[in-house]
Amino acid sequence: MNGIIYLRMKKHYQTTAKKKVRLKDIAFISGNEAMVAKLNQIVLREIVKEDLEVCVIEGFTVIKKLQAYFPEIDLQLLGPNQTIIHITKKRRVPRVTFILFVWSLLFVGSAMTIMNFHYDVSMQSVQQRLHYLFTGEKEKYPLWMQVPYSLGLGLGMILFFNHIFKKRINEEPSPLEIEIYKYQQDIDQYVSHYENKLNDSNDK
């Protein structure tokens, strides 16, 4: 007997097409060092074109395959019971004209959204009224208030998203990152559910 082998599946693993997925790629293994070295090299699946972008490897399938190679070992599965494999393919580098077009589209769209919002809430009238309350004079364009407000609006967006380009301001996740994380969890549950159905039908 080689003792107990503890196996903990990784939640995600990213690879490329036409590549063999070994046990060490999708799981953490603890136990007898000699046995662990052998288990790490076992090929569980070979990624093919039919796998498209996502596939799932179940912990039960892994244990079944490992016991076929080494029936004497005692495998204990801990943590997640499956690994979702994301398959990346070579993508074309986007052209500069396309990047500029997308950037311009987002810039104009964002600007229109902000302007329409300020028009709906009558922001200019509010600022004119505040200027009158502070100075006692009427001014159509109270720039001393509008300019700091515009700068503060941009600064507030930076603080909200918690990023300056690729640099994070602090360790706290932004609301956008949390929403992306929740969205990724929903995708993982969806993929796992339907992948399991496919596995069940194939086993039958």
Layout: helices, strands, pairs:
Elements: E1 4-9, E2 12-16, E3 20-22, H1 23-26, E4 27-30, H2 33-40, E5 43-46, E6 54-58, H3 59-69, E7 74-78, E8 82-88, H4 96-120, H5 123-135, H6 143-161, E9 163-164, E10 167-168, H7 175-203
Parallel strand pairs: 1-7, 2-8
Antiparallel strand pairs: 1-4, 3-5, 6-8, 9-10
Overview of this protein structure:
Helix content is 53%, strand content 21%. The protein is built from 7 helices and 10 strands. The chain starts with a strand and ends with a helix. 9% of the residues are buried. The model has no long low-confidence stretch (mean pLDDT 84).
Shape: elongated
SSE sequence, one letter per element: EEEHEHEEHEEHHHEEH
Instruction: Pick out the low-confidence regions.
Output: none
N-end to C-end Cα span: 33 Å
Write down the overall mean pLDDT. Answer: 84
Computed CA radius of gyration, to the nearest angstrom: 28 Å
The proportion of strand residues reads 15-25%
Total helix count? 7
Question: What is the makeup of the main sheet?
Answer: 3 strands, mixed
Number of strand segments: 10
Question: What is the structure about, briefly put?
Answer:
The chain is of the alpha/beta class. Helices cover about 55% and strands about 20% of the residues.
Name the features.
204 residues; elongated; 3-stranded mixed sheet; 21% strand; alpha/beta; 7 helices
